[in-house]
Amino acid sequence: MQETPDVGELSPPQRTLMGPGPSPVHPRVLKAMSTPLVGHLDPSFVEIMDETQELLRYAFQTDNQWTIPVSGTGSAAMEAAIGNLVEPGDTFLAPTNGYFGDRMAEMARRAGGDVVRVGAPWGEPLDPDDVADACEEFDPDVFGFVHAETSTGAKQTNVPAITAAAHEHDALVVADTVTSLGGVELRVDDWNIDAAYSGPQKCLSCPPGASPLTLNDRAMDKVLDRDAPARSWYLDLSLLEGYWGDERAYHHTAPISNVYALREALRLVAEEGIEERWARHERVAGALKAGVEAMGLGLNPEPDYWLPSLNAVRVPDGVDDGAVIDYVLEHYDLEIASGLGDLEGDIFRIGCMGHGARPENVTLVLAALADAFDALGADVDGAAGMAAAREQLR
C-alpha cells in the first residue's frame, strides 16, 4: 500500500509575467473562475455559451456564426482548425518564417496533408508576391500563416494581399492569431480570413483552457462535406457543431470554469473597446521598445513589422541570455523568456500583453534588465532606457 503523500498547501510565487505567455490575469477573471459550477448543459450555462460566442465575434471582428472556444490550450484550437480543414491528400501551404509556422506544417502532415512551404527568413513577414508565386506553383487547398509570430516578434503585414493571393487559387486561409487577438489590429472579416484560432493566455490575459476559434461559412462547409471524418474525435468540428450550434447536444464536458474566465476576459475587451485596446498595446509596448533601444539593445524585427505584444530584444554580445533570465526571476520575480529555434540565444522574448501591458510593468522590466546587465558586466545605459520610456508614456 502506498504511503499518504505529504504535500503542503499550494503556494506558487507571485511573479510578474512578461514573457511570451501566459500574461498577468486580471483579478476579475480570477474571480470569475471561482464562481459556482453548473452543468455543461444547464440552461444558465447555455446562455453563458451564447454570450461568450458573441464576445468572441467582437474580439475577432467577425460575423461568423461558427465562433467558439475550443476545450484546450491554443494548440488545441490550432489542431481543430488544421485537422478539420486539411483532408488526406490536400496540399497545405505553410510559412517558413518562424517556429509556429513549422508547427502548422507538422499538424497538417499529421492530418494527412501534403505540405509545401512559402519562404521568408525568421523575423520577417511573408511577401505577398511570394505567396502568389507559391500558390501558382503548388495550387494549395489550404494556406496557413502566422499573424503574430511569437518566436520572432514579427507581425505579418499586408494580410489582405496574402489572403487575396490564396483565394485566387480557391485555397482556404487559416490564420494563427495566438499572440494578436485582443492586442494587435485583427479584422477577420475585412481581411477575408476563412479560419482563425488563438489562445486565451496572451493578449486576452486569461488562464489557458478554452481557446478561441472562428470559421466562416466556406470553411465550415468543407468541414461538414469531408469524405472522411477528422482524425481527432475530440476536436471534430462536425461533432462539436452539435454542442456549440443550435442543438446544444452533448459531445464532451466543457471546461466550465475556463469558459467563465474567457467570458470575463472578453467582457474586459468589450468594455475597453477593441480599437482602444489595440492602441494601448502599441503605446505601452512602444515605451518598452524605446527603452530597450535607448539602452543600446534594439529589437530583432524591422520597425515596419514590429509586434507590440511580443518584443524580441537582442541579447548584447558576450552576455548569456540564460543568466539574465535567471537573474531577473530571482531578484525581481519577473519572467521573461529566451529565443526559440533559429533565434535561440540571440533574443529575449518580452511580452506586453493584455493586463500586463501597463506602464508600471514596462518600468519594472527596464529596471530589472539594467540591474541584471550591470551585475553581469554588460555595458548598457539603464538610465537612458528609463528616460526614453518615460518620455513615450507622457
TrEMBL record:
Organism (species): Halobacterium jilantaiense
Annotated coiled-coil segments of the chain: none
Keyword terms, alphabetized: Aminotransferase, Pyridoxal phosphate, Transferase
Name of this chain's protein: Alanine-glyoxylate aminotransferase apoenzyme
GO BP annotations listed: glycine biosynthetic process, by transamination of glyoxylate
Keyword Zinc-finger: no
Chain positions covered by the region annotation Disordered: 1-27
Cofactor(s) required, per the database record: pyridoxal 5'-phosphate
